[in-house]
Design brief:
single chain; 433 residues; alpha+beta; six-stranded mixed barrel; two-stranded antiparallel ribbon; 13 helices; 12 strands; 51% helix; elongated
Length: 433
């Protein structure tokens, strides 16, 4: 008996019962479609997050003073610089300011840092307009891409060589993610508002959401300028660049050992690892939930196969009477179930790829991170809200696994009905009404 004959028998059987076959295939397709869609979407999310974190530099460590009465000065910077495994350390000032230009007021962060080493903190970032300010130029500034080219047409752009005025509360140095509400209130009481004019010397390329800083929405000034802006020698914090990913944990442990609870240490790699674990667990849970539909498909195929055997009992008797063996009868009905599962798997996996893109498209292909800056008068600009681009990842391996799973389910579900059909005797079959 040729494989061609077996397949022909299976196709003919499905064509004879088109509606039942279509409903069974549809029931099977739901499982692979759900698995491919959910896993593809979660894998896309995980990959997008990982790519964004890699872009920010997995060797970057942020150190912020949080201890009461503890200050972060050049002494602490030099101490960290001497730790084994530290490649570079970039102390910085960060203040909240109101930018005034051309009759427009927006709130934006002003970060004072060594501009010549900005590319270490933000790999691949470049100056697309203008030039790099000199470290001695106290009135020069670099602006982020979205400040120069805001997507919102209602927000006027900041032009190259335009003078902007930064109104800063000298006591309101931002503590990044650290800092208590009590400390903030105390600083607010001690603060006084000062204004400084800055000349835009350069515009940075678009970078995207950063973990510690969003460069697209930030004004960067030389480090020495930060001392004048804040009126203090104590840094807001420092970015420590480890020599490799492998030594990040060692450097982090050394910093924590030296400064104890006086500093808060955050690393890109630890946050990335946590997020990857969460998305991996989420993917497993979603796949497990989707697998319930596979069980339903199993029962559907088995029911359909038993019904097919019952309806074709006389046909089985005739086939056995003319010489077909038990093995041939078993293969006929088993191949029908396998073919049903295979077709359902193909349709389901392809549909899953489409569904995953549709689900992501509901979010516009992105997930938002925070809101835009606050405009004067309390309105919040939507132009500078940070987003994470998400693209579903549908790999050939995922498609093949979904199809194989559906095919195996079809084979297992059809095995018992096929075996029952092969055990029927010709006399019993021919007497069936």
């Amino acid at each position: 008996m040729l494989l061609r004959d077996i397949l022909k028998f299976s196709f003919d059987a499905l064509r004879e019962r088109k509606l039942r076959a279509a409903l069974t295939i549809l029931g099977i397709a739901i499982g692979p479609a759900a698995i491919v869609a959910l896993i593809g979407a979660t894998e896309g999310l995980s990959h997008s997050v990982s790519a964004q974190f890699d872009k920010m530099g997995v060797t970057t460590i942020q150190v912020m003073p949080v201890g009461r009465g503890f200050t972060f000065t050049d002494v602490e910077v030099n101490t960290i610089r001497n730790i084994k495994g530290v490649k570079e350390i970039l102390p910085y000032y960060r203040v909240n300011s109101i930018l005034q230009y051309g009759g427009t007021n927006i709130q934006a962060a002003v970060v004072s840092i060594n501009l010549e080493k900005l590319s270490i903190l933000f790999p691949d970032i470049t100056i697309i307009e203008g030039s790099m300010p000199q470290s001695s130029d106290m009135t020069a500034a670099l602006i982020g891409y979205r400040l120069a080219k805001p997507p919102d047409t209602e927000t006027p752009p900041i032009s190259l060589y335009q003078v902007i005025t930064a109104s800063i509360q000298s006591g309101s140095t931002l503590q990044g993610i650290g800092g208590s509400a009590l400390q903030a209130a105390s600083l607010q009481q001690q603060s006084r508002t000062t204004s400084r004019s800055l000349l835009v010397k350069g515009v940075l390329s678009e970078f995207g959401q950063g973990l510690f800083i969003n460069p697209d929405d930030t004004v960067f000034v030389p480090l020495e300028s930060g001392r004048l802006l804040t009126g203090r020698n104590q840094y807001t914090g420092a970015y420590v660049i480890a020599s490799s990913r492998e030594v990040v944990n060692d450097v982090t442990a050394a910093i924590s050992e030296i400064f104890g609870n006086n500093v808060r240490v955050m690393t890109v790699s630890s946050i990335l690892s946590t997020i990857q674990n969460i998305t991996g667990t989420m993917s497993t849970i979603l796949a497990s939930i989707a697998s319930i539909s596979v069980v339903v498909a199993f029962m559907g195929i088995m029911t359909t196969s038993f019904t097919s055997v019952y309806e074709r009992t006389r046909e089985i008797g005739v086939a056995k009477a003319v010489g077909y063996t038990n093995t041939a009868i078993l293969l006929f009905f088993l191949s029908e179930a396998v073919l049903t599962g295979f077709i359902g798997g193909v349709i389901g996996s392809l549909s899953g790829g489409i569904i995953s893109n549709f689900v992501i498209s509901l979010f516009g292909g992105r997930i938002g991170f925070g809101a835009g800056p606050i405009m004067a008068g309390g309105a919040r600009a939507q132009t500078q809200a940070s987003t994470l681009q998400i693209v579903p990842i549908i790999t050939p391996q995922l498609i093949l696994i979904a199809i194989l799973m559906a095919t195996v389910v079809g084979a297992l579900a059809g095995l018992l009905p096929a075996w029952r059909a092969s055990r029927l005797t010709p006399v019993e079959c021919l007497r069936h009404e």
